[in-house]
Fold:
Amino acid sequence: MRELLDLHSPSTLRALSMRYLGLACCCAAACVPQGELKAPPNTSFYFPTGVVYDDDPSSPVNGILYVANSNFDRRYTSGSVLAVPLDGIGDASLRLPPIGTARISSAPISIQHLGSGLSQVYIQSFSGEMTQLPMGDARRLFVPSRGDLDPLNIITARGNQLQCLGPTDDCTQSSPSLSNVPKASNGKPRSVEPLGVGVGTFAGSILSGKVAVTQLKPADSPPMSGNNPESYLVVTDGTATPVTVTADNFISLGLVADNNGPGTNSVVVGQRFAYATNRYKNVDGTLFSFVDGENPSTFFDSGFQGTYRALEARGIALNQDESRMYIATRTPDSLVVIAISDPTSDLPSFRIIATVTLPVGPDEVAVIPRSGQGNLIAITSTASAMLSIYDEDQGILSALLTGICQEPFGIAVQTCGVSPQPGLPARPCPGSPGQAARIFMTCFEDSRVSVVDIPDLTRPDQVQLVAFLGAPNNCLASESDTSCLAAAP
Structure:
């Protein structure tokens, strides 16, 4: 899971120097001894990465949070996905206030007790991003892992009840591998370290229900040879039961010269095209590649390397009508805003309309829609432990929030007073006719989730840190932290 950590962070550098070599050889202090089963914690987060929010009636006030726990140091047998009904967290004296109602004048509240009604399933370690697909009365959750066989973990969620497609609570046995696939030959195609995942949610569109997965590193052939490196985007039917992945689901993004990239980081699925950001080792790579749902054997280069160069492209998001794309880049650390013309045509056109400087180490991007106004864009910066809010109407960063946690990464957004996506009704704001948003961020290093509110979407400068969820740990920085050494419940 090293790529999820920001290598500019001093705490991460200390952590890696202390632990990463130990992880490679599975040192006794951290890793599970061979043959011993040690379940991950079922009442706390543990190096969380992906996060999804759902307005579920079983938790009618605050909804449900689904969090992927990466088990980064392999202290446990596997990672997990934990369902947390937010109405039940805390105790009688300490609860999470409803969206838009918190009034924070001092330190944010710390709710360490995640409450009752929790549910957990097991996934492979080293999880990445997570996304969801509505399916009738349920949600299907998708989260890739960089653990054994690089699986795409697939979970059915009905409120706070989670179940793998098996159906069991052990998704490690039922999730399709992305690196050991039918019809592959001499190591190709395969995903090496899958990280990003997106799903098509535009009803009736070509890519509706399709799941796309990125990979951080190109696949070589034969495996471990370093020869013939090639990058792929995996696109498969996320509505099928079971979900299958064969060589036919791999779309080549081309051979990689001198093994210098691109690998892909994050992906967003539109009506016709899936867009994947590119991570590479020099500034000659493209900002993003995209594939056509009508002709999936072809990929396209965005062509921006001639006008905008960045060492890495990370998180990516689309607005509701697919007229805007937002990409976080590193070196330079920026938010790139791209206008899209004719997004469902045979070849849409793209134009960079803004680049905005961000705090060091931006990672994930999420869109916060507003009725009658331009979008707000939330960006986590892992290295600088900051959250940025970009106001599309103003063309500026309207807020920079510090002290949100250690290594913020994944983002999930809850809204009220505004439709979260086309076709879905707006949920009324508690006691107010206005519009508000709540942002949930996974805190990778200290194993918590931060809760940030924008009580009035017309005033994004009033963003405030409301709460920390879960008990903190310092497992990367301190071998003696009791929260890390204690046995799992």
In short: The two ends are 24 Å apart (CA to CA).
